[in-house]
Amino acid sequence: MDMNLLARKIILTIAANKTVVNLVSKHGMKWGAARFVAGSTLAEAVQRVKELNSRGIDVTLDHLGESITSKEQAREAVEACLAILDAIHQEKLRANLSLKLTQIGLDIDYDFCLNNMREILERAQKYNNFVRIDMEDSDHCQITFDLFYTLLNEYGPERVGIVVQAYLYRTAGDVEELIKRKSTIRLCKGAYKEPAEVAYPSKKDVDANYLKLAKTYLRSGVYFGAATHDEKIIRELMEFVEKEGLRKEQFEFQMLYGIRRDLQEELVKKGWRMRVYVPYGKDWYPYFSRRLAERPANLFFILKNMLKP
Ligand code: FDA
User: Which of 99, 146, 166, 253 meets the CB 3.0–4.6 Å disulfide criterion with 210?
Assistant: First the structure.
């Protein structure tokens, strides 16, 4: 296993420790979580979306939350998703919605979760908007695909999409099937702690697989989101599009709120499509720990803030 993945495993293990959870949940916003999270309310997030839209950047809004264990919590999350779709419509934002299935009841009851998704997609249909299902850890991968394919058959690829992770061995097969079904995806590297039985243990292999999958999608002509901040991959994809005579409008780059803003601006200026994932809400802890694990250097930024009077 290489050092990057080892560091990620260590940070995610420490982040799951109860004492750490309590301490960081209490002070984390002040220590630096605010760099990655667009606020705790929808109104705050809408302001950030307006700023991004005014700079030529599209958005996907995410109400933070995952792994909930009661139907009440799941219903609250559904209401939050509906409120996002209403706000996007009312405020005329250039934005769509991303969500996690464990936030709307996947761990409680499959049919309950499926019906929650249907309710959200009905609202998206009313506004001609789009909902993307984030991909969680590998234990949830197959069930997420099962539920997604049911919805894809019912609502079509213009209404619902999924995320695939280049670190999983299975993704090449998934991509083949998704292209056959003309399904738009978000391609990311993958952010969870996964064993070598299911995921490439070396960053080099993950990066190579990412490029291979992105080029497969580009050649297919099916629209997709290349979600990465990896400059080397981004430059190679831009060259590939130009060399193969493909259209810039065939795909969009996607990045996370607060990460590589310089690169986001540069790509927009050069005429590439850019979408930023804007998370907001009170349950920011798991999202924040994954951002730290991706880049251990972020820990120094946190430590610096902790030491501020
Ligand atoms: P990599 O980790 O190699 O980083 C490349 C460079 O990007 C770094 O050198 C650094 O400059 C910068 N960078 C990356 N992460 C940073 C951070 N946290 N802080 C500061 N700089 C950073 N994952 C998942 O499992 N399921 C999902 O649904 C999603 N959804 C998603 C949406 C969008 C829009 C994005 C961009 C990413 C995701 N991810 C995700 C996360 C993804 O899997 C991955 O963990 C991160 O994007 C980091 O990987 P990179 O591709 O950026 O490359």
Answer: 166
Phi, psi at 58, each rounded to 5°: -80, 170
Give the strand pairing for 274-280 and 95-99: unpaired
Substitution candidate for ligand 1 out of 294, 300, 301 with most atoms within 8 A of CB? 294
Q: Give the list of residues 6+ apart from residue 125 with CB closer than 8 angstroms, or none.
A: 155, 159
Ligand 1 residue neighbourhood (C-beta within 6 Å): 134-135, 163, 165, 186, 188-192, 227-230, 254-256, 259-260, 277, 291, 294-295, 298
- Residue 191 phi/psi, 5-degree rounding, is -120, 5
What CATH code is assigned to 40-283?
3.20.20.220
Which ipTM did the prediction report?
A: 0.98
Distance 290 CA to ligand 1 centre (A): 9
pLDDT in tens, the chain (309 residues): 677 777 777 777 877 777 766 666 777 776 678 889 999 899 999 999 999 999 999 999 999 988 889 999 999 999 999 999 999 999 999 999 999 999 999 999 999 999 999 999 999 999 999 999 999 999 999 999 999 999 999 999 999 999 999 999 999 999 999 999 999 999 999 999 999 999 999 999 999 999 999 999 999 999 999 999 999 999 999 999 999 999 999 999 999 999 999 999 999 999 999 999 999 998 888 888 888 888 877 777 766 766 665
Domain ranges of the chain: 1-36+292-309, 40-283
- The whole-model pTM stands at 0.93
